[in-house]
Every structure is written in C-alpha cells, then in structure tokens.
Amino acid sequence: MSDHSSPTGSYDIVVVGGGIVGLATALALSATPGRRILVLEAEDGIAAHQTGHNSGVIHAGLYYKPGSLKARLCAEGRAELEAFCEAEGIPFERCGKLVLATDPGQLEALDALEQRAAANGLVGVTRLGPEAIREREPEARGPAALLVPQTGIVDYRLVAAGFARRLAERGVALWTGAALETCVRRHGRLVLETRRGEVTTLLLVNCAGLQSDRVARRCGVDPGVAIIPFRGEYQALTASGRHLVRHLIYPVPDPRLPFLGVHFTRRIDGEVEVGPNAIPALARHGYRWRDIDPRDLWEMALWPGTWKLSASFWRTGLGEIWRSLVPRAALGDMRRMLPAIGPADLRPAGAGVRAQAVGRDGKLLDDFHIVEAPGMVHVLNAPSPAATASLAIGRYIAARAETQLGG
C-alpha cells in the first residue's frame, strides 16, 4: 500500500513514520469510522529501519518492572500480536528462551528475574540446573538457567506488511518517499510540507523513530531529548554450526550496563544470530562504519547529554568498538555460554540501528517519552518491547491523541 504521487489534501490525522509503531497507531486511530488518515513515510517503503532490522523476538515481558507500563503493554501486545499473525497467516513460533547464568555470582540476579517473571504473570517459567540445561541445550553450560516458554520469534517485516494491508482495507492512505520538511499552523489546522507535496491536518502523530526529535523540532516543539543512534552488529552461525542452539539463549542482564550483551537468537527463517554489540553509529542510518553523516555527528556533538553519556560508559564503549573491529574478540563472551563454539561456526551478518533517546543529563531513557502540543503527539522514545507490543502501544498512543480530537 503505497503511492508516489503528491499527497496533497486535507486529513483529520497524519501519522509520521511507517515503522511498526506508526502503522499500529494508525490502525488504532482508524478504528473510528469516517476519519481521513494519512501515514507519511520518508523512505521508499515501510519498515525500512528499526522494524526491518529487528531481531524478530516476541518478548515475554520477563525483564520489566512489575506493574509498569512496559510490562502491561508487553503482555497485552504479545497476545494481540500472536492473534494477528494467526489471522493473517504470518508464521511465528513460541520457541522459548533460556536465560543462562554462567557463574555462581549471577544466581542472585537470576533469583530476582524468577520473582519478576511471577509478578508479571508469566506462566511455565522453570528453573533449570546444569543437567536440565544440557537436556534443553546440549552445548550450553552454566550453574542455572530460567526457561521462559512464552518467548517467540517472527518476521516483523511481514507483520508490518500485514498492518499495511489492514490499513488499506480501512481506507487509510500511506505515502512513501514523503519526508516531512516543515510544519506550520494556519487557520486552526497544521500545514505540512513534504517532499511529495502539501497536506493539512487537525492532528499530527509523530512516530518517526530515528528522526522523531527532528520532526518534533520542525513542528516547533522541544523534544527534551536527542536521538543518539547505536548500531548493533550481528554475526550468524554457519549452517554447520546451527545445531549448537535450539532455543534463544540470553545472558543474565547486568543492571550496571545499558545494553543486554551477547546472546543467541533463532530466527523464523532458520538462521541463528549472535550478538549484537552496541556502538555509537556515525549516522542515524549508519549500518556500516563507512556510513558517516556530518550533520548527524555535529548534532550529536552539540547535545550535552552525548558527552555525559560518554563519560559514564567510555570503558564499555571502547570494548564494544573493539569487538566491532575484531569480531573474534566476542568469542570469549560466547564461549562462556557455549564452550563448543569456534571461529568456523560464525560468519558476518546484518546490523540494526537503535533510536536511543538521551536526556540532557546523559541518561538513556528506558521508558516511553511522549511530548504533546496543541494538535500534536510526539513519540520520542518507544523502547523494547516496541515491536512485540506494537498493537497495544499503538492503542496507548491513539488514546493520547483522542483527547486532542475530543474523542
């Protein structure tokens, strides 16, 4: 569902961003009949960035604080996502996940995760000892693990395409190649200039991901954060090495660090990804080291939070950069979980760029950050489990928007 002609016209709602959150938000808003809704996507197709480079995990909601918005939306969204996939014939699998402690010092943290799983309503989470671990994952080693059976896998590009089909059935317009350039208020409406022409709307909902802070500023709104892109680079198991992993295998998270660390992720197409690292990208769409955007770098340099973040995590950052430049350097982390893995079992794979909102104080935002202005809702941070919970998140964002429409 796309059209490359000029998107001129008058709409009730314009959603900026054709990723999974923007599409899900448009779906929720289109549940009210009679509305004229337009989705603007800057790229030539939907799901071009974070959605299209997603690891494909359907998260169970193990890590989130009980009672938090993320925990609630994950539980609701996971069930809705699976139901949507069944209805649309999109393949998915509940393959389960092992959260593996690799030394006794991690057992207390594993205990806390087990308690959190119960508090978040997860069913069937089981504590495994060394022998039970080997029964599930013959090559994995550790003193204990949690088996989380509700974790699954899917291709989120297919999910996004399914959302787009539903939107088309409801008469929602989707325009690709239509980056938002300016936004001004005129006669009680917002006038949006895009690369494909001018449109007007009563309400704008910004779900632009990697460009969301810029979209807010173009609309005259201070987002309060800057998007700092972090690239996650993956390796993959070779065909001869895939037997090493049956489930998803994750480490016990270190609460001192902002990212999860190396883990093994089965994909719905049969691939097994290993990684990712987490390094600052040199462009918002910087999927490779050679992808450099001077404007992006200049904006990062001007943001005070960039330097405060660097001061807090420079040692971790250097280690991640080293593992990027020398991929075999990550073997030590891999072998703590799977001692049998070797260089011959690995090959280079893809990369994704995470739109990480960073405050002026250098803190990484770990929860939703939504800024409203008259006629506008700007989603500046939609953290994991954004893809898993997209339908629930879309409904939550739409509810915020409804208040501005008087709904």
Structure at a glance:
The chain has helices at residues 20-29, 69-88, 107-119, 130-136, 156-169, 212-218, 294-302, 304-325, 331-337, 390-405, and strands spanning 9-16, 37-40, 57-58, 92-93, 97-101, 126-128, 144-148, 152-154, 173-175, 180-186, 189-194, 197-206, 225-237, 248-251, 263-266, 272-275, 279-280, 346-359, 369-373, 376-381.
Strand element count: 20
Instruction: Tell me, briefly, the overall form.
Output: globular
Let me know the largest β-sheet.
Answer: 8 strands, mixed
- State the CATH class of the largest domain: Alpha Beta
End-to-end Cα distance, whole Å, is 27 Å
Strand content is 25-35%
- Secondary-structure element order, N to C: EHEEHEEHEHEEHEEEEHEEEEEHHHEEEH
What structural category characterises the helix and strand content? alpha+beta
Overview of the molecule:
- This protein is an alpha+beta fold.
- It folds into two domains: 1-91 and 152-224 and 360-407, FAD/NAD(P)-binding domain (3-Layer(bba) Sandwich), CATH 3.50.50.60; 92-151 and 230-355, D-Amino Acid Oxidase, subunit A, domain 2 (D-Amino Acid Oxidase, Chain A, domain 2), CATH 3.30.9.10.
- Helices cover 31% and strands 27% of the residues.
- The chain is built from ten helices and 20 strands.
- It has helices spanning 20-29, 69-88, 107-119, 130-136, 156-169, 212-218, 294-302, 304-325, 331-337, 390-405; strands spanning 9-16, 37-40, 57-58, 92-93, 97-101, 126-128, 144-148, 152-154, 173-175, 180-186, 189-194, 197-206, 225-237, 248-251, 263-266, 272-275, 279-280, 346-359, 369-373, 376-381.
- The strands form four sheets. Strands 1, 2, 9, 10, 11, 12, 19 and 20 form an eight-stranded mixed beta sheet that branches. Strands 13, 15, 16, 17 and 18 form a five-stranded antiparallel beta sheet that branches. The chain has a four-stranded mixed beta sheet with strand order 6-7-5-14.
- Strand 15 and strand 16 (272-275) form a beta hairpin.
- Helix 1 (20-29) packs across helix 10 and helix 2 (69-88) crosses helix 10 (390-405).
- The longest helix has 22 residues, at 304-325.
- It is globular, with a radius of gyration of 21 Å.
- The mean pLDDT is 93.
